[in-house]
TrEMBL record:
The lineage of its organism: Eukaryota, Viridiplantae, Streptophyta, Embryophyta, Tracheophyta. GO terms for biological process: cold acclimation. PROSITE patterns: PROTEIN_KINASE_DOM, PROTEIN_KINASE_ST. Residues 424-433 have a biased composition (Polar residues). GO terms for molecular function: ATP binding; calmodulin binding; protein serine/threonine kinase activity. One of its GO terms (cellular component) is plasma membrane. Keywords: ATP-binding, Kinase, Membrane, Nucleotide-binding, Serine/threonine-protein kinase, Transferase, Transmembrane, Transmembrane helix. InterPro entries: Kinase-like_dom_sf, Prot_kinase_dom, Ser-Thr/Tyr_kinase_cat_dom, Ser/Thr_kinase_AS. It comes from Daucus carota subsp. sativus. This is Uncharacterized protein.
Length: 433
């Protein structure tokens, strides 16, 4: 009887231990599954798989034949399409409201844009309108084209990212509208338009060399903030002249974050996104984008500022031919934009071109970081200011020397005049005697 009781106790104990172990395993499995689900949802929200842009005017086409759905944006079952769409819309609405960006009503924007008649531009996303808000503030309203499925992802990406990105060299997102089946983004109005319009448009005077270098530094600072200042860091993926906007004082800001991605562990993209002419060759071949992909695009932009030539019109082939005679360091004068009329500093030109050539190195690891680019361009401007200060000091010294010589000559004439008067007086006194 005792043996039976002991066996029963042991059996119950073993059962309890096994039950506890199974409960613990089930708990941890549930936790792991929940975390993976959250990561998957986050990745699918951030991974804006958007079209490649074929020119600076922002027209769109897809480089790859693969479908719109990607590995990091899971497809939805057809049977649950209605419920899934509703849940997806609800989730996106919550994300937008949590972004911290103000939401405007369709009616307010309709009034501010004079019923959407003040058109100032047209891009891949859709039309852009100039608007004056009830507060008197002038803004730019970018409207999503109704037939643009890609643009909807771009819309959510910009709101989510720009809700936390704030820098003087990034275009500020003021608000958004998601109402009546329309999606609109409201930005600070950049009165001088895009850098591309100044390089290639006939309405503007050619940009001076000094201003081009300052614009390059502004852009470098904006992208450096994305790479090193933002947490987590952001890869822009579409640095180009038409995405650089200029304010009233010609200060440059980086715009259009529709293709941007947070710098996550998985940088592999099933489709190549970006703009032809600015795309990193290593990114095209490996389908892996990194911060150095932005550096390559920035290098192309530097050459664009130097040469005044569109990357879609053989800019980099032109650069490679020139590089054969320059060794990548000096002798870049032959590619300079003729609109400059020879008004540039040779040393600055070669320094900027040498930096640009490092940025477009075929091996991404050999390219400088954006922080390095900021330091080099800052040093170039610092040396310019030093030279200008020296010239001013020498000019001032020369003016002072001229004044002193004039004063000395005036005093000399006065002394001679006094001597003549004294001699005349002496002769007159002698005659009287």
């Amino acid at each position: 009887m005792k043996a039976l009781s002991s066996g029963l106790i042991i059996g119950v104990s073993i059962g309890v231990v096994i039950g506890v172990l199974l409960a613990i395993c089930a708990f941890f499995c549930f936790r792991i599954h929940s975390k993976r689900s959250q990561i998957g949802n986050s990745s699918s929200r951030r991974a804006a798989t958007l079209p490649i842009r074929t020119n600076g005017a922002d027209s769109c086409t897809v480089l790859s034949d693969s479908s719109f759905g990607t590995a990091d944006s899971p497809k939805i079952s057809v049977n649950n399409n209605g419920m899934s769409s509703w849940l997806g819309g609800l989730k996106k609405a919550n994300v937008l409201s949590a972004s911290g960006i103000l939401e405007y009503s369709y009616k307010d924007l309709q009034k501010a844009t004079c019923n959407f008649t003040a058109l100032i531009g047209q891009g891949a996303f859709g039309p852009v309108y100039k608007a004056q808000m009830s507060t008197g503030e002038v803004v730019a309203v970018k409207m999503l084209a109704t037939d643009s499925k890609q643009g909807e992802k771009e819309f959510h990406t910009e709101v989510i990212l720009l809700g936390r990105l704030h820098h003087r060299n990034l275009v500020n997102l003021i608000g958004y509208c998601a109402e009546k089946g329309q999606h609109m983004l409201i930005y600070v109005y950049m009165s001088k338009g895009s850098l591309a319009s100044h390089l290639y448009g006939e309405k503007h005077e050619p940009l001076s060399w000094n201003l081009r270098v300052q614009i390059a530094l502004d852009v470098a600072r904006g992208v450096e903030y994305l790479h090193d200042g933002a947490v987590p860091s952001v890869i822009h993926r579409d640095i180009k002249s038409s995405n650089i906007l200029l304010d009233q004082s010609m200060g440059a800001r980086v715009a259009d974050f529709g293709l941007s991605r947070e710098d996550m562990i998985n940088r592999h993209a099933s489709n190549v996104r970006g703009t032809f002419g600015y795309l990193d060759p290593e990114y095209i071949s490996s389908r892996t984008f990194t911060k150095k992909s932005d550096v390559y695009s920035f290098g192309v932009l530097l050459f664009e500022l130097i040469a005044g030539r569109n990357p879609q019109q053989g800019l980099m082939e032109y650069v490679e031919l020139a590089a054969m005679n320059t060794d990548g360091k000096v002798g870049w004068e032959e590619i300079v934009d003729p609109n400059l009329g020879g008004k540039f500093d040779d040393q600055e030109l070669n320094d900027v071109a040498a930096l640009a050539y490092k940025c477009v190195n075929a091996v991404s690891k050999k390219r400088p970081s954006m922080r390095d680019n900021v330091q080099v361009l800052s040093r170039i401007l610092k040396h310019r200011h030093g030279r200008n200060h020296l010239k001013h000091s020498l000019s001032t010294a020369a003016d002072e020397l001229t004044i002193n010589m004039d004063q000395l000559e005036s005093r000399s004439k006065l002394t001679q005049h006094q001597r003549d008067e004294s001699m005349d007086s002496s002769i007159a006194d002698s005659c009287e005697l």
